[in-house]
């Protein structure tokens, strides 16, 4: 089986933080985040730095191309470890830059990352939606949207961080069909980012269906994914809480892998793992400190769907 897949990028961008801590500004609508009662500490920052370093090295050993950028914390960007929210890349040489809900997260945008992509990969254009922040319209990249690159569907949980206006603009520019839906966890909270409850891979999809509130929409999404020939793997609310939905399929020269956290992998059943491993090797990354901020492995990896320069 070929490892190549339009769904699975072979390269990623990661940001290694030097002053990481859970961001109090984002806690109001992120139920996955743990309260940072003591504020920033050297121990938390050092642990997060080490987790990114070790995760990047493990992915490289598997054959993924990893571009690591350091965030020295000069702009007070505690969530910079999650770059997939402020930019995305697309086949054909396209890059999108997104409007961010919280002001501290807007400081994460780094044009040295964009310049690296232009120099290392074939980039035709960069579409910048960040000006929509002045209109209080937000769409936080592939956190807010889970993209099916083959079927051209943008699955999107409605939230403060996923407004329908920028979603429509993105889908028009990048030729995706928007499929938005409402969510509620066990406490009635909306899911802040779609990518904590859904992962679309080449041959399977992990989805927290119970969180989708409209039964008709739930079944429509299930059928849409299955119609693409994927095996649908339902995730329980507990598994969603353990970040099992926050995974990403990546391509290496000889295989595909599913990158997810050790905590997420531990929550999967043996049957679920067997389905995944028919087409992708499970690669566990230990990121418990970073998960305190309410995101996990998928949030840490900005996939590169661009052709390399030679």
UniProtKB/TrEMBL annotation:
Gene3D superfamilies: L-arginine/glycine Amidinotransferase, Chain A (3.75.10.10). Residues 1-40 are annotated as: Disordered. Pfam families: DDAH_eukar. It comes from the Bacteria. PANTHER family: AMIDINOTRANSFERASE. This is Amidinotransferase.
């Amino acid at each position: 089986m070929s490892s190549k897949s339009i769904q699975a990028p072979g390269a990623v961008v990661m940001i290694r933080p030097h002053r990481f801590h859970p961001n109090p500004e984002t806690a109001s609508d992120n139920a996955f985040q743990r309260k940072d009662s003591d504020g920033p500490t050297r121990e938390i920052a050092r642990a997060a730095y080490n987790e990114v370093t070790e995760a990047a090295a493990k992915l490289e050993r598997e054959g993924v191309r990893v571009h690591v950028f350091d965030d020295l914390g000069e702009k007070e960007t505690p969530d910079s470890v999650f770059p997939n929210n402020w930019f995305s890349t697309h086949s054909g040489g396209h890059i999108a830059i997104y409007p961010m809900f919280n002001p501290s997260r807007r400081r994460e945008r780094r044009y040295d990352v964009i310049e690296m992509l232009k120099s290392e990969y074939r980039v035709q254009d960069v579409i910048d939606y960040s000006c929509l922040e002045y209109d209080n319209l937000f769409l936080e990249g592939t956190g807010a949207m889970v993209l099916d690159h083959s079927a051209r569907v943008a699955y999107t949980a409605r939230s403060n961080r996923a407004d329908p206006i920028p979603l429509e603009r993105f889908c028009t520019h990048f030729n995706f069909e928007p499929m938005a839906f409402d969510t509620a966890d066990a406490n009635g909270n909306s899911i802040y980012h779609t990518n904590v409850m859904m992962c679309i891979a080449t041959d399977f999809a992990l989805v927290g269906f119970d969180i989708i509130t409209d039964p008709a929409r739930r079944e429509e999404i299930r059928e849409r994914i299955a119609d693409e020939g994927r095996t649908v793997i339902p995730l329980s609310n507990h598994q969603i809480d353990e970040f099992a939905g926050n995974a990403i399929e990546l391509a290496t020269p000889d295989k595909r892998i599913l990158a997810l956290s050790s905590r997420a992998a531990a929550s999967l059943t043996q049957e679920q793992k067997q389905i995944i491993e028919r087409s992708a090797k499970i690669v566990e990354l230990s990121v418990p400190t970073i998960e305190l901020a309410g995101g996990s492995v998928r949030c840490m990896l900005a996939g590169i769907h661009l052709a390399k320069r030679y």
